Amino acid sequence: MTISKRFVRLKEQSSSSEFWEPTERHLELSDGTLEQKRYGFTLDSNRFIETGVPIKEDLQSIFVLGDSFVESTFADPEVRFVAQAARLIPEANVFNAGYSGTTTLQLLTVLINKIAGLAKSGDVVVICLPMSDGSALLESGHYWNASERYAPLVPGVQGQPSSWAEDVVPLLSTAFHFCRALGLEVLLVVSPFRKADFSTEGWFRAMYKRNRANYERKKEIMERLQEDARAVAAREGVPVLDLEKLVASEAENFYDELHLNVRGQNKVSEMLAGFIRESEVLAAS
Fold first, then answer.
1. Which residue windows are coiled coil (predicted)?
2. Which residue would you say has higher pLDDT here, 95 or 160?
3. Least enclosed by CB within 10 Å: which of 48, 53, 108, 111?
């Protein structure tokens, strides 16, 4: 029997391209407001998406972790909310550590295997609850699945069936405790997902292949994830920015179910910068 090596997947940027461009499928699954053009990006030496703000070695660092919501693929570089927040917090280095398709389990891997080696005591980790979890938890084995996109191991190995509703709690709790063990400040952002009308919005029905049961199941999982994340943060005394309650009800902030348009990017950038300041985690505060 031939046994191949397996690897723990580290979700980080690796593209050699200088731009992202939406495909026809991306456009089909948007509400019509996503502009078809090239959206530039550059990576720094640690494969974070550059914000355009020069890094100063003597400053405190803020690492914003999450999935494509944080990555903000189809937004201009200066518009991405992490980039705007970096300009609003000039006394710290703000890093966009978002990566499309990252789950909470994969985020924990990035935190342990990458951020821990870059951060110093007193730095800040902002965990944006990945909405990719909603799709990963529909897989057999849930977080520990064998899918090409969400598997935590490469090649993927199917995990044992589990109660998906209980999985996020120990993962987030571990992330919080790990940060604090390293002397890092940790904050939680409850990421939003847009409420659309399944009966009338064609792009939304197309996303779920016109199957309302699939939509209701996904919605149930995502709402439960958000509830559990709030509960864990409250128990652990972690400050929370609840974007689900602040921006999700306004369709004008999104171009699809999960991703922010320019209006949403502008709004969230101000909220994030204000949240970080109000949480009193900045060394200069």
1. 205-235
2. 95
3. 53
Task: Return the C-alpha torsion angle 267, 271, 274, 277, nearest 10.
Answer: -140
> Would you state the structure tokens that stand for residue 149, as one six-digit string?
């996109």
Q: 3-class SS at 222? A: helix
Cis peptide before 155 (omega within 30 of 0): yes
Under a CB-based contact definition with an 8 Å cutoff, are residues 133 and 103 in contact?
yes
User: How many alpha carbons lie under 13 Å from residue 153 in its C-beta half-sphere?
Assistant: 12
Domain boundaries, the chain: 7-278
Angstrom distances, CA of residue 236 to CA of 166, 250, 252: 17, 30, 33
Q: What is the mean pLDDT of residues 128-132?
A: 95
Q: Which helix (H) or strand (E) holds 126?
A: strand 124-128
Supply the pTM of this predicted model. Answer: 0.95
Q: Which residue has the tokens 């000039």?
A: 90
On the CB side of 250, how many CA atoms lie within 13 Å of its CA? 13
**pLDDT band, very low/low/confident/very high, at 162 (cuts 50, 70, 90):** low
Q: Which class would CATH give 7-278?
A: alpha beta
Nearest residue to 171 (alpha-carbon basis) of 152, 153, 157, 147: 152
- Angstrom distance (rounded) from CA 250 to CA 195: 8
The owner of tokens 């910068």 is: 273
Amino acid (one-letter) located at 110: V
**Residue 122 per-residue DSSP state:** T
User: Of 76, 117, 123, which is closest to residue 95 (Cα–Cα)?
Assistant: 123
User: Model confidence over 111-129: pLDDT tens digits?
Assistant: 999 999 999 999 999 999 9
Within the chain, where are the H helices? 24-28, 68-71, 81-88, 104-110, 116-118, 133-136, 164-181, 202-207, 212-236, 243-246, 262-278
Give the contacts of 64 (CB within 8 A, at least 6 positions apart). 70, 82, 85, 94, 95, 96, 97, 98, 126, 128, 272
